[in-house]
UniProtKB/TrEMBL annotation:
NCBIfam families: asd_EA, PRK08664.1. Residues 6-138 form the Semialdehyde dehydrogenase NAD-binding domain. This is Aspartate-semialdehyde dehydrogenase. InterPro entries: ASADH-related, Asp_semi-ald_DH_pep-lack, NAD(P)-bd_dom_sf, Semialdehyde_DH_NAD-bd, Semialdhyde_DH_dimer_dom. SUPFAM superfamilies: Glyceraldehyde-3-phosphate dehydrogenase-like, C-terminal domain, NAD(P)-binding Rossmann-fold domains. Belongs to the aspartate-semialdehyde dehydrogenase family. One of its GO terms (biological process) is threonine biosynthetic process. Gene3D superfamilies: Dihydrodipicolinate Reductase, domain 2, NAD(P)-binding Rossmann-like Domain.
Length: 366
């Protein structure tokens, strides 16, 4: 790409916004032009706004440290400076829906980490390796919004990335009933141990809204585009029940899953399907795409957060402990990085695919 696309980050001071900042520091296709946040941060330099609450392992990148934060509500001012935006704003769902649509209506594509539009029928919710064809619904969304270039695309909940990819790799064996329990890192709540000290040595057996997302969002990912209705129709081939627990880990969502299949695959069949699984990002060699989307680990004590959460720079998924079950057919353990594969990294990869498919373009070239 000769000239990089200009990117705005909405909600740039929060944990996911910070992760966007670090991922875009040396990105070959994108450059951070605008950082935007709430009115209380507007007017400060970025480094001033995150002083005392920078949560990444590396320093604030020099290319954004002295950028002055704009008020995320200055929609026209921000849109005039960027080709598209990443959204990680912290607002109510109704406010998020409204502001993301407002940006889209300025002909500025929005790639969102937020959950507000995940069930808007004509908004694609995509894991690029699994359901890139859902981007087709963007054309119907543009008609509703009255735009030529502007649209919203979202990524799914971070926790489903630890088990949904395995089930996607096994679709040919017809899984139809799943129990999935997730053990979720505190960064999924936008916190670290300094800001949430009561999580040290603690487990909380409840995460608001998380179980419904875990049970329903995979079905939308496995759904199809209804070209007559102009919307995504969720799959009805599977039922999932879930429990979601917060555990004292900074990064990494672990899942235990029990699966029933209509067919009778062997362990060798299932492992080979995991290792062979790849998607369009791998075929296109997108900058953020892992070379190997899923790894299977043979050791009984893997995957482990300490050893495996950063597999493929945090963009890969680790599966292990695949074995037969006395009630269900098979059971396994999965692990994914919640702020990379599950949040900002997944959104960046989605944006790369949207660029490769010409949904996102430079405004100057239109």
């Amino acid at each position: 790409m000769e000239a990089k696309l200009k990117v705005g980050i909405l909600g740039a001071t929060g944990m996911v916004g910070q992760r966007f900042i670090t991922l875009l520091e040396n990105h070959p296709w994108f450059e951070t032009t605008v950082v935007a946040a709430s009115p209380r941060s507007a007017g400060k330099t970025y480094v001033q706004a995150v002083a005392g609450r920078w949560m990444m392992d590396t320093p604030v990148p020099a290319d954004v440290a002295d950028k002055v934060i704009l008020d995320v509500n200055e929609i026209d001012k921000i849109s005039n400076q960027v080709d598209f935006v990443f959204s990680a704003v912290s607002m109510s769902k109704d406010e998020i829906k409204a502001i993301e649509e407002a940006y889209a209506k300025t002909e500025t594509p929005v790639v969102s980490n937020n959950s507000a539009h995940r069930w808007t029928p004509d908004v694609p919710m995509v894991v690029p390796e699994i359901n890139p064809e859902h981007f087709e619904v963007i054309d119907f969304q543009k008609k509703r919004l009255g735009t030529k270039y502007g649209f919203i695309a979202v990524k799914p909940n971070c926790s489903i990335q630890s088990y949904a990819p395995a089930l996607s790799a096994w679709k040919k064996f017809e899984p139809y009933e799943v129990i999935a329990s997730t053990y979720q890192a505190i960064s999924g709540a936008g916190k670290n141990f300094d800001s949430w000290p009561e999580m040290q040595g603690n487990i909380i057996p409840y995460i608001a809204g998380e179980e419904e997302k875990s049970e329903k969002e995979p079905l939308r990912i496995w759904g199809h585009v209804d070209h007559e209705k102009g919307e995504i129709i969720p799959s009805d081939d599977m039922v999932i029940t879930s429990q979601c627990i917060r555990v004292p880990i900074l990064y990494g969502h672990t899942a235990t899953a029990f699966v029933k299949f209509r067919q009778t695959p062997s362990k060798e069949d299932l492992v080979q399907a995991l290792r062979d699984y790849k998607g369009l990002p791998q075929e296109l060699n997108l900058p953020s795409a892992p070379k190997n989307f899923i790894q299977y680990l043979e050791e009984d004590n893997r995957p482990q957060v300490a050893l495996d959460v950063n597999y493929e720079n945090g963009m890969g998924v680790s599966i292990g402990r695949l074995r037969t079950d006395s009630v269900y057919d098979w059971k396994f353990v999965g692990l994914s990085h919640n702020t990379l594969r599950g949040a900002a990294g997944g959104a960046v990869e989605s944006a790369e695919l949207l660029v490769a498919q010409n949904y996102i373009t430079k405004k100057a070239d239109r």
